[in-house]
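DM from R.C. (forwarded with permission)

"hey, sorry to bug you on a friday — could you get me a structure for this? deadline for the figure draft is monday and I only need the backbone to look sensible"
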Amino acid sequence: QVQLVESGGGLVQPGGSRRLSCVASGSFFSTNAMAWYRQRPGKQRELVARVTDIGMTNYAESVKGRFTISRDNAKNTVYLQMNSLKPEDTAVYYCNAALKLKERDYYTTDLWGQGTPVTVSS
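My reply, with the result:
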């Protein structure tokens, strides 16, 4: 009954920008950490950026200074602003969220979106 839906992917020229969005919907109590992962062709899925419930962030070294993760807790939404895109950024980008489904839950349930593809090419 809960779902993450990503949007914003597409074709971008090198040096261009793109903003990805991910909305958590359904019945849950709260979202804790939210993150963006990506899977590049021929590579394993990797963490791109993560933001905690209080706004602390961390980034993969390969995207520092170019990507920015942010969230809107009121909208249960996390964003990834991608600037100065490079061909090697081409990947399927996945949203991840740590959810508490019930107020009394003592554990966090990880939820994944379906992925949104980003292609950086001329």
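R.C.: lifesaver. The longest strand covers residues 30-39.
me: no worries. The chain has a mean pLDDT of 96.
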